[in-house]
Amino acid sequence: MESLLSVRGLVKRYAGVHALAGVDLDVCPGEVHAIVGENGAGKTTFLKILSGALHPDAGELRFGGAPLPLGSPRASESCGIVAIYQEFTLIPALTATQNIFLGHETDVAGHGAARRSAMRTRSARLLGDLLGDTAGSGGVDPERPVRELSVPERQMVEIARALSRESRLILMDEPTATLTAQETARLHDAVRRLRTRGVSVLYISHRLEEVLSVADRVTVLRDGRRVETVAVEEATLDRLIRGMVGRSISERYPKEAGRAGGTLLEIRPSDGLAVHVRAGEVVGLAGLVGSGRTELVRAVFGAERRPDLAFAWCGRPVRPVAPREAIRLGIGMVPEDRQGQGLVPGLGVDVNIALPNLDRLRAGWLPARGGPRRLAEPLIRDLRIRLADPSQPVRSLSGGNQQKVVLAKWLARRSRLLILDEPTRGIDVGAKQEMYRLMNQLIRDGKGVLLISSDLPEVIAMSDRLYVMRRHRVVAELDARGASPETVMAHATGLRG
Amino acid sequence: MRRRLLRDYGSLLGLLLIGAVLGLLSDRFLTASNLINVARQVSINAIVAAGMTVVIITGGIDLSVGSTIALAGCAALLAAGPFGDAVGMATGIAVAAGVGWLNGALVAWGRVPPFITTLATMTVVRGAALVLTNGEPIVRSEGAYLWLGQASVGPIPVPILLMVATLLGAHWFLSRTRWGTYVYAVGGNAEAARLCGIGLAGIQILVYVLGGALAGLAGLVLAARLSSAQPNTGVGFELDAIAAVVLGGTSLMGGEGTIWGTTVGAFIIGVLNNGFNLMNVSPFYQLIAKGAVIVLAVLVDQLLKAGAARGAVAAMPAEVSEDRRLAR
């Protein structure tokens, strides 16, 4: 079949370094084409060139048989290429309909009220088509302000906006990073419906299982080069990972068994099972998104008040009412939202690591000069945080390295219990492996780890013991070695227990 | 790093440029006595702006400093009458710090946005100054306090010394103490700061108290220079202070900014005022020109930043390539 998009020898250099070193790629009409690769493999650079946000240094791009104008987002859009980024580009105060037609209102015939009503009908139609609802708008009210819509609903509005502009290729960069399993399934249904309409999708994701379920073909990038493009029938997890990291990973979850010591933390809720975490073990907290896992650990950390929970630390009843108090007890938390809650992006790596430790960095009553750097340097070395300079802003690091900075804060504090909330979300395979090794290191050093993860195989494999939550209650305690994903899901959804 | 140099020294370059032009246009500008005169005129705004910088770095703003200047001067001279100058000055500073505490408490505990809080206290404090004085100036032409505004140590007038001490102190606070680091952290990401065990309310109250107290100091200097306190003084001073902070490259979004930048910003405003006066420009035109220069400076800064951001993107994959090297 004639390709919709044909890329030949695409090169992009930054300061002499190749981000893309001659990539070829073809996308057929109505094809879902996935691109996988580690962070830095060039996936996002590739998308940015297609969407016109970046100008390539060399290479030929043809779209629909004609050369694609380069380096202009407007030109790419008018050719029919639209990118949907992780950060939404919708205006929160405007309705879904207004957002869908923003800047293109005059494409709709009529004037005043007639045009508004035509737009409403069309946006309801677009949303209904996407969500497989032939009669209505798929449960998304096109007249509600976008700020009142959920994340997956906003995504649908973005896609509907792309369709309203007759897009032929939609670029999606990690579209499921913040979605639950059900929401992901809904998005994938929508992607499949796009395919039947003849719209092509270029799909970037770290979640390889997802890629295998939704894509027609998969292209693996490594170090700015194409390793291979395979039809999804021939692709396996192992093959993709081998292509991405250039070697096979012997064990996906290199878990070392813990040697549990004394009890560090006990959580006794007024309703449901009690939770305890001992030194030298990883305790997993599984459950659906919204089952109250994050709220529970935030209460442990004093970031949220929960009068229905009683806590004991090393056998002593405690009630942390502020993070400061939990930190003093010896608890550290790596929050779910790394950028929004874990780091001060504009401050240096060393200052971020020193932030919870500044009260200890003193010479007399004056702060020690160069203290943050001295504190941070050994941790940057031990955790292998890759950077040019310890004082460079933490926002310039990759996701995996940022996650290590958040962890380093608490290692510097010598926290005895670490709460890790979705520690591997949005980081690539290699960085995940390092995070697992660090978790092994933590329990070897006699620390306790409380792990939340929505990645079910991961939380089962990396935990020694497992609790399952449903509707804000802890409903089951399992030995992680004997647990299967099916058992955990049964408890999490209420089919059992 | 290069971006920071460019930005900090960019505004300094602007100041030197304005100075050079004025030096060419007027032979009186580059004389020692005139430069000391400029510095003395700048001193009050610089003292206020130092506090404003700290407030703005947390993502706040303090519109009440102009009124606080008036209230502090009036309270100080009223108390100085019966109790002596030392008690009077202490009262002035304490009242100003109290206004700051009220601002901070409303922002931190009441969750009232800083703009609204300080807009309200701006009028309340102005009213308090008028009530306290019945709207009449308080003249006090003798007393030790006049030293603050009228004396010199060697050739250097005391207000300049106070300004230098304030700026050095504020710089030390922001760059060398842990509370200074907390100020940047709160402005950069309040939630992350809280989860690091930093007490948000404490930092917010601290910065407004600091801003209020420095406005109080400025009020005392002003009263000492005029030998009197006036309840109507200081109108619009908050805008000059904010202008100095912004000219210095501090972001109104919080999280970044330096005292050094604010110092340069305050001097740009002061040198412009002085230059216009030397050249007998009508005060009406002065206002227009001053506004234009502020917009122009921020515009140039934005252009530089956009350029630097492009540079930063270009530099980013250096880290990525490092990633690759180590992955092998």
Low-pLDDT parts of chain A are none
Molecular shape of chain A = globular
Task: Describe the main β-sheet of chain B briefly.
Answer: 2 strands, antiparallel
Number of helices of chain A: 17
Distance between the termini of chain A: 53 Å
The most extensive interface, with participating residues per chain, is: A-B, 47 and 35 residues
Q: Total number of β-strand segments of chain B?
A: 4
In round numbers, the mean pLDDT of chain A is 87
Tell me the fraction of residues in β-strands of chain B, as a range. under 5%
The order of strands across the largest sheet of chain A is 6-7-8-3-9-10
Question: What is the 3D form of chain B?
Answer: globular
The percent range for helix content of chain A is 25-40%
* C-alpha Rg of chain B (nearest Å): 21 Å
Radius of gyration of chain A in whole Å, from Cα? 25 Å
* Percentage of residues in DSSP E strands of chain A: 15-25%
Overall mean confidence score, pLDDT of chain B:
88
Q: Please give the alpha-carbon distance between the first and last residues of chain B.
A: 29 Å
Determine the structural class of chain B based on helices, strands and strand pairing. Answer: mainly alpha
Q: Unreliable runs of chain B, pLDDT <50, ≥5 residues?
A: 311-328
Topology order of chain B in helix (H) and strand (E) letters: HHHHHEHEEHHHHEHHHH
Largest sheet composition of chain A: 6 strands, mixed
